[in-house]
Amino acid sequence: MPLHSLSPVSAEALLGLWHLTEPADTLWELLPSPAHYLARFPEGRDELRARQWLAARVLAGQLLRELTDAPTPIENDLNGRPYFAGLPAFGVSLSHSGEWVAAVVARGAAAVGTDIELIRPKARQLARRFLSEAEQADAGNDAAKHCLYWSAKETLYKLHSRRGLVFKEQLLLNPFERREAGVLTGHLLLENSRRQHQIHYFQPTPNYVLTYCVDTA
Question: Where in the numbering of this chain does the 4'-phosphopantetheinyl transferase domain appear (predicted)?
């Protein structure tokens, strides 16, 4: 079944996972407002990325229906951040990697973020681009930990949707011991402020890591 799980992560927030197995035609039929998305469908994407894009919006629509009787399609702001048009009290975040799609929908949250990543050597190879020296030392030779660092920083980035953030300098994580599930402490460093967030993580399958955060501040 494509909808793999739907889990409450707080009293007002849901996390959904979609196992992407169906073709694009089937996903179009599942969308709450196909005409709306047809006008916004990104051209030039390969087949997999097109299916991921569609499945993320199908999943978000299903999560929203669990929280309200007013289904609303998704728009994107100037920074590319998704939001439900006409429902400012609801936050949404989307992510996809390989055959998995994730979404978080929350009512009354200041911001939400989620990211899912296939564990692969690429994150370790690019570590100097997105990890501080302390974070590189903490990640060591652990490929899964490198991916978890990357995923958590993506979640932090989505929380704030601010272009130009430098991942290795402004999005930082405290050292941690990687487990199957846990909570990471992340920091957003701006010119005149510092914000701290608790980022939850787990492995939905042995080959993937998923992070999410619901900011109620």
Answer: 111-213
- For the segment 61-111, what is each residue's pLDDT rounded down to a tens digit? 999 999 998 878 999 998 889 999 889 999 999 999 999 999 999 999 889
Beta carbons within 10 angstroms of residue 171's beta carbon: 23
Q: Which domain holds residue 140?
A: 116-215
Q: Which residues contact 209 (CB under 8 A, 6 or more apart)?
A: 116, 117, 119, 144, 147, 148, 151, 201, 202, 203
Asked whether residue 160 falls in the same domain as residue 140, the answer is yes
**Distance between CA 2 and CA 58 in Å, rounded?**
10
Query: Which pLDDT score is estimated for 161?
Result: 80
Q: Which residues contact 27 (CB under 8 A, 6 or more apart)?
A: 51, 54, 55, 58
Element containing residue 211 per DSSP (H, E): strand 208-215
pLDDT at position 72 is 87
Asked if 137 and 66 sit in the same domain, the reply is no
Rg for the chain, CA atoms, rounded: 17
Q: Where are the beta strands (DSSP E) in 98-207?
A: 100-107, 111-118, 171-173, 181-189, 194-202
Query: In terms of domains, do 100 and 8 share one?
Result: yes
Cβ atoms of 155 and 114 closer than 8 Å:
yes
pLDDT at 1 over 60: no
In this structure, what DSSP letter does residue 88 have? T
